Amino acid sequence: MTAPRPGTLKQLRESSWQSKSVKDELRDNYLAALKSGEPLFPGIVGYDETVIPEISIAVLAGHDMLFLGEKGQAKSRLMRSLVRFLDEFVPYLDIPGSAVHEDPFNPITRAAREYVRNTPEDEVRVAWWPRAERYAERLAPGTKFADVIGEIDPAKLAMGTSMSAEDALHFGLIPRMHRGIFAMNEIPELDELIQVGLFNILEERDVQIRGYPIQFDLDVLILFSANPSTFNRSGKVIPQLKDRIGSLIQTHYPRERALGIEIMEQEAGADAAGVFVPYFMKEIIEQISVSARKSKYVDHASGVSARFSIANYRTMIASARHRGVRLNEAPAVPRISDLGHLPTSALGKLELDLMGSHQMGERQVLEAIVADAIRTVFEEYVEAHGLDEIGDVFAKGVKIEVGDMLPSSEYAKRLKRVPKAWEKAFEVNTGESDAVRASCVEFVLAGLYATDRISRGTRHGRMTYET
Predict the structure, then answer these.
(1) Is the pLDDT of residue 426 over 50?
(2) Cα separation, 21 vs 19, whole angstroms
(3) In the chain, what are the domain boundaries?
(4) pTM metric for this prediction
């Protein structure tokens, strides 16, 4: 609608605005987006062929949805992204003290109906509700019945309102999201009493508070999220509630490492400004997450979030930037030795499998995972380029010391006895900067160590590679 927007009920009736349910509104705008070919979920990577088609079907079917997946699989972001398919603004009755954004043509509360019935249409005020405010989200742990559904308001009772009257009720988030979207995260942690309270809302769309039924047609799209290990556990989610959720949307981690890298770079954003990251370093950071998800030492039920990769990527970049400033090197280029700082960002995000890890501590598990990631990526490059000659050099007694605070120029001096390293560090030539060469050489050395071709000693932040 073009400005100025109608400000009274009479003006609204004379305008082109039509009343529709929130699910119809969502469906119509979604179909328009599909027809235009615009990106449906900007910023969501790796779901074009799997998750997004399922969401599309659910939206067009008018279903409430459950997003089921491990932590860090963009469940909350997907739920929030649905807001963009609502109208930019919708009109509502501007009634002082009302907790519900009433459809001017179809009011649902007794107070709103009486207001419209007893007031001339040119005096019934209409305001406009922006789409950004038509979404509410709640985390299940600690949530009370009154928070999401409602409660008898003792203050209103004290003022003489009858307990059997609708006016005595204080509405929770779901009734307040009438004509909007409500999302509940981690539904298995929701108290059973609240789960039972959701039965009628999902099916009949009415609300019952302390046995008092509010008979009105509640218009709301309800979304849920859950972790498979808890959602599928017997007794965590009442079967009748599961039965009332229209569509289950199964999310997943990136199925290709390149997609994980794309997500990692997208989320790191400006954090990487002024830092040149060789692609193999990006591969290693993402492979650390892939290896962690496969590790027998990590609790698979807990999962390894995409935030694990993002936090580690930022830590690596921060270490490189710190070196660049201290040693006046530009651009800063991350190295393998920068991964020594990963425990600060990684340890709090890994949950160990107590049966698989046995006596291993978190740091030992992380070291094993990082070593596995380096070996995996390194062997992919070795297959194409072959680096056995460098390993043979160490058999002659050569030792090379590296570290995250060693100037890049020092690498050339230390490697004069093994000049082939410059050529073998996959496509690094004499035109590259010292910082890029240093990063490549550390990768080669770490790869040789990870594949048991040479040994490594660590002391005071420095690493020495030898036979």
Answers:
(1) no
(2) 7
(3) 9-250, 257-466
(4) 0.85
Q: What angle do CA 179, 184, 185 make, to 5 degrees?
A: 150
Mean pLDDT of 113-121: 92
In 3D space, the residue among 408, 266, 267, 270 whose CA is nearest the CA of residue 331 turns out to be: 408
Residue corresponding to tokens 């599961």: 242
- The burial class, CB within 10 Å (0-12 / 13-18 / 19+), for 466 is middle
**Lookup result for tokens 């960002």:** 345
The percent helix, strand, coil of the chain (3-state, each to 5) is 50, 15, 35
User: Do residues 398 and 416 lie in contact, with contact meaning Cβ atoms separated by under 8 Å?
Assistant: no
pLDDT digits (tens, 9 = 90+) for 172-191: 898 889 999 999 999 999 99
∠ CA(32), CA(37), CA(40), 5° rounding?
Answer: 75
Q: How confident is residue 280, by pLDDT bands cut at 50, 70 and 90?
A: very high
Angle at the Cα of 190 (from 188 to 191), degrees rounded to 5? 125
pLDDT above 80 for 210: no
Q: Are 369 and 292 in contact (CB under 8 A)?
A: yes
User: Is residue 161 within 8 Å of residue 168, measured between CB atoms?
Assistant: yes
Query: Alpha helices of 74-213 — where are they, by DSSP H?
Result: 75-81, 110-118, 145-148, 154-158, 173-176, 192-203
Q: Which tokens hold the place of 107?
A: 């009011």
Q: Are 362 and 350 in contact (CB under 8 A)?
A: yes
Instruction: Write down the number of H helices and E strands in the chain.
Output: 21, 14
Cβ contact 98:112 at 8 Å: yes
Going by C-alpha positions, the residue among 312, 285, 322 that lies closest to residue 403 is 322
Contacts of 104 (CB under 8 A, 6+ apart): 9, 12, 19, 91, 92, 93, 116, 124, 126
The pLDDT value given to residue 52: 96
Q: Which neighbouring-strand residues pair with 249?
A: 67
Give the bridge partners for 8, in sequence order: 125
May I ask the CATH class of domain 9-250? alpha beta
Chain centroid offset of residue 156 CA: 41
The angle at the Cα of 204, spanning 199 to 207, to the nearest 5 degrees, equals 70
